[in-house]
Amino acid sequence: MNRNPRVAVVGATGAVGIELIKTLGKRNFPVSKLALLASARSVGRKLKFRNQEIAVDELTKDSFKGIDIALFSAGGGISKEFAPLAAKAGLKRIFASSYQAVSGTGAKAIEELKRQVEELVSGKPATKEVYPHQIAFNVLPQVDSFLPDGYTKEEMKMQNEGRKIMHHPAFRASVTCVRVPVYRAHSVAVSAEFKQPVSVDAAREVLSKAPGLDVVDDPEKKEYPMPLYTAEKYNCQVGRIRKDCALDNGLCFWVSGDQLLKGAALNAVQIAEELLK
Ligand SMILES: NC(=O)c1ccc[n+]([C@@H]2O[C@H](COP(=O)([O-])OP(=O)(O)OC[C@H]3O[C@@H](n4cnc5c(N)ncnc54)[C@H](OP(=O)(O)O)[C@@H]3O)[C@@H](O)[C@H]2O)c1
After folding, report:
1. How far is the CA of 10 from the centre of ligand 1 (A)?
2. 252, 202: one domain
């Protein structure tokens, strides 16, 4: 692998792409050449990388000639560092509700929330393009499309990706995914059931050592993770850790994390950094 690779960012003009470009710069990734790729709509648009203005090119079959690393807006997910920890505790199943930011839908949804807020505060009706209902001052219990069993694709992704990430084919997740009028950072309230009893102290200790995660959990001081304050941070935050009063071996906790960074752009750059090692 070239130690100073030529890098392409695919989807450079999107919500994740913009974060990828910033993250490559902030982490001093040793880029010798950066190609920014998007659709024909964005050709000619210029984006800043370090002190350079780079023109966006159209993505074509030939775009990757001479490119060492291509960063596609990689799928989100929980950091794989958690896999061994979760597997060790023999986690059985979770019940969860997510509170997902509009940037998870992409750049157009960020614009939709901004536009609707402006329309509503100036007394006009909210116009809709991206979501089926008004998202400003509302919550939508639908993320992605519905499956025949009544769950959405996003909800089943939590079970299916959880199984892959934890190498745990029997893991079960019953989830309700909700879109909330937050610009950036997803949150999730989790009740997790384990095979054996798990104490709050042991959970706190394991979580405080986990890479990519900060424990923010001091209820007396009203300290807990919030999307407003985890936005633009590399680490996810976990708090409200407590015994679940409705499950025998259960723990409840609340997590917030910047899905554009840890869920996509930062993760992609960290994978590229691993390739250089
Ligand atoms: N947003 C998140 O939080 C998040 C988290 C994890 C994973 N992801 C994944 O990351 C990907 C991008 O998401 P996003 O939120 O950044 O979406 P977005 O804001 O809508 O951006 C989409 C990007 O893809 C480009 N594009 C679309 N069609 C193209 C084509 N035919 N050829 C070349 N480029 C094309 C767009 O270029 P133009 O501007 O030219 O149209 C734009 O740069 C998706 O697969 C999404 O599932 C997103």
Report:
1. 8
2. yes
